[in-house]
Write a structure and sequence with these properties.
Elements: H1 5-18, E1 19-24, H2 30-47, E2 52-56, E3 60-62, E4 65-68, E5 74-77, E6 80-82, E7 86-90, H3 93-106, E8 110-115, E9 123-124, E10 137-141, E11 144-151
Antiparallel strand pairs: 1-8, 2-7, 3-6, 4-5, 9-11, 10-11
Amino acid sequence: MYRPLSTLLATALLTACVSDTVYHAPGVSIAARDAAFAQCQAQALRQYPVRNETRTRPPTFIPATETCDAAGVCTRTEAYWEPGETYIVDVNRDFRRTATQGCMGNAGFSRVSLPFCEEGTAVTYSTTIPTLSGGTCLLRQRGAEPLIVNPAG
């Protein structure tokens, strides 16, 4: 099913505002997690290098329309074809993602989906990944992965 790009972006933005999926292993340092992730990504890239393919969406037929106003004056728009769009796909992208996830799993990390912390939430900061609790949430960081934190208290 085709969805306009604006709809897909809006859906992605709404989803991104609520939660995210991150790698978790309680007690492991954040630096060790980041190093393992970088190694896994590099390994996956060696196994499945970027392989871009150019693809084209088929042309779309737009049928003729006729609209009439209250006075009976009608306007007709002739049928026409919109050309197909050309786009590029990295056919190895999903393979790299799966390989990275498998590598991280082998390194002892699990993927967990957590909500983002509500603004103003008091949290406990740590250089190690905390054990999950009922209030565990993700703290947004500019230019970096979200930080897994537990509420202060």
